[in-house]
Amino acid sequence: MVRGLALFAVLVSAGLLAALPGRAQEVSIKILVNDEPISDYDIAQRERFLALTTKEQPSPELKKKSTDMIIDEHLQMQEGRKLGVTPDEEDVTKIIEDMASKNNLDVAGLTTALGKAGATRPSRTASGRSSSGKAWSGRNSPARVQIGEADVDQALADSGEDEEQSSVRVEQVRLELPSGADQRVLAAKLAAAEALRARFTGCGNVTDMAKGVEGATVKTLLEQQATNLAQPARLLVQNAKVGQMTPPTVSHSGVELYAVCGNRAVTSDGSIRETAQRKLMNEEMMIRAERLLRDLRQDAFIEYR
C-alpha cells in the first residue's frame, strides 16, 4: 500500500492525472515550493486518494499528510531535474500499472475507483514531470551505498543466523506404528527400538540389524541438514557424535532412531548473507533518503498562502 501511495504521488504531482471532464476548475495557489505552485485542487485530489486507499476519514490530519507528501514530491522532482532525469512514456505506463496492481486493481479498475472517489483519471500517455521517483532512486541507488563485510557479520551475529550449518549424514530407522495403536503396542515398539539400539556397533550394520525387527525400515539421509529434522530428533542428532545412535523418538508415523554416520560444517549457498546485506542496504538507503529530504526542506523556500 505504501508503494501504491508513492506511485500515485508521482502521478498527481507530475500532472499525470487529467482534470475531471465537464466542469471548470477554479483553483487557488496555496503553497509555493521554490516558486513552484501547489493548488488547493492538488491537495484535495491527494486527500481523496488517501481517503480511498487508507480508509481514513477526511480530517485536518489527513489534509496535512496530503500537503506534506506533495511538498516532498516537488522537492524530489526539482532534484531530479538537476540530475537531468526525464522518464519516457514507458516509465509512466509502468507507474500506472504498478499503482493499480498494488491496490489489487487493473488500470481500468483504478480509473473507475478514482472516479467514484471524486479523484481525477490517470492518463496513460502523459510523460510530463513524473521524474520524482526515478530521480530519488538515482540519488539513493545501491551503487552509492556500501555495506562492509564487518557490518554483515555483525548483523548475522545479532540475528542469531549462521552461515555455517551442521550437515549430517544419518541412517534413519523407523519402526512403523499401526493406525490406532494403543499404549501397549507403543511400549512394545519402544522396547524393540531400544533393543536395536543396544546392538548398534556402527553404520555398517544398521540394515542387517533392522531386518530382524518387525515393521522396521531403514532410510539413508545423505547430507541432510540437522536443522531440517523435526524435534526432538533434531536436537538428539545435533548432540550425537559420529558413530552413535540416538535414543528412540515417537513421530506421527512411527518410532524412529537415527544413526549418525557423518557430521561436518558446511557453508550455506550464500542466501543468508545476501539477505542480511540487502536488509542493511535498504535500511541505509532509507536513512540517506530521509536525510536528503530533510536537507532539501531546510534549504527550500516554502511559502504558505
Automatic annotation (TrEMBL):
Signal peptide boundaries: 1-24
Superkingdom classification of source: Bacteria
Stretch list, region Disordered: 115-146
Molecular function GO terms recorded: peptidyl-prolyl cis-trans isomerase activity
UniProt-listed InterPro entries: OMP_Chaperone_SurA, SurA_N, Trigger_fact/SurA_dom_sf
Compositionally biased residues, Polar residues: 122-140
SUPFAM superfamilies documented for this protein: Triger factor/SurA peptide-binding domain-like
SurA N-terminal domain segment(s): 32-120
Keyword annotations of the record: Isomerase, Rotamase, Signal
Identification of the protein by name: SurA N-terminal domain-containing protein
Organism: Methyloceanibacter marginalis
